[in-house]
Design a protein that fits this description.
With about 250 residues, the protein is an alpha/beta fold. The chain contains nine helices and twelve strands. Strands 3, 4, 5, 8, 9, 10, 11 and 12 form an eight-stranded mixed beta sheet that branches. The chain has a two-stranded parallel sheet with strand order 1-2. It starts with a helix and ends with a helix.
Length: about 250
């Protein structure tokens, strides 16, 4: 009898230790198709492919409730460092690894199989712009203006290739400059489905990146098993089902 009670108490404590609210922070500017809408509001319908994936992930863990918080990106990073938020989606960098927990293999290497997303960035441009890109060499007939969201790591490389850079506050603003004829080229996720007539996408990626669901050190230290289980679950989710909606 005592043994049964002891096991029940252990199970109950374990249950409580896994039950939590996970505060997930993401960009307050639209980043199509991952995040839709601007500002602090989380859209009730079609909030973005990444948010729908997280909502699906949430539904697989009865003891976890994901609370979505929208802030400027740098504030999200700082709040993760301070433990004010628990998770976000980010590419790997050594600087971020000092305050963010990434999924890892047994040998300590980053586990790309448990990444949240694998995205590619491509050129999109007007039909009137003669642009050739084969993954190594870029050829254009004349110097072009390119609209790039502020913070993209490609800026210096694009400058070296002869582009005149116009930095914008968001992907949406960069595309507006392109579609309104202010520049001839911009960047987008590859396989962009909603280009207006007169614009094309170069299908060869400029760069490919893995995005990871990362946890604050504070959250991971409290819930290591839960964190690992959530990363494991990502392997089973068909990402395309969510991104095809957009």
């Amino acid at each position: 009898m005592f043994k049964k009670r002891f096991l029940f108490v252990c199970f109950f404590i374990s249950f409580l230790s896994e039950a939590t609210t996970l505060n997930f922070c993401y960009e307050s500017k639209e980043l199509f198709p991952h995040y839709i809408g601007e500002g602090v509001h989380v859209p009730d319908k079609k909030p973005g492919a990444a948010i729908e994936m997280l909502q699906h992930l949430d539904s697989n863990f009865r003891n976890v409730q994901i609370r979505f918080v929208r802030e400027p990106w740098n504030r999200c990073l700082n709040d993760l460092k301070l433990g004010k938020v628990d998770a976000l989606i980010a590419r790997y960098s050594e600087a971020r690894a000092k305050f963010a927990k990434y999924p890892k293999q047994n040998n300590g290497a980053i586990d790309t199989s448990r990444s949240f997303s694998n995205t590619s960035t491509c050129f999109i441009h007007s039909n009137n712009v003669l642009l050739e890109w084969d993954g190594q060499e870029l050829k254009t007939k004349q110097r072009q203006g390119i609209a790039v969201p502020r913070g993209y790591s490609l800026v210096e490389d694009l400058k070296s290739k002869g582009f005149q850079i116009y930095e914008t506050t968001s992907v949406k603003k960069a595309h507006e400059l392109l579609f309104n004829g202010r520049v001839g080229v911009s960047l987008s996720d590859c396989n962009h489905k909603k280009l207006p007539v007169g614009f094309v996408e170069n299908k060869t990626p400029i760069v490919e990146n893995y995005g990871y669901l990362v946890f604050s050190h504070q959250f991971y230290d409290l819930y290591p098993r839960l964190s690992e289980r959530m990363w494991d679950k990502l392997i089973q989710i068909n990402h395309k089902l969510f991104y095809e909606k957009y």
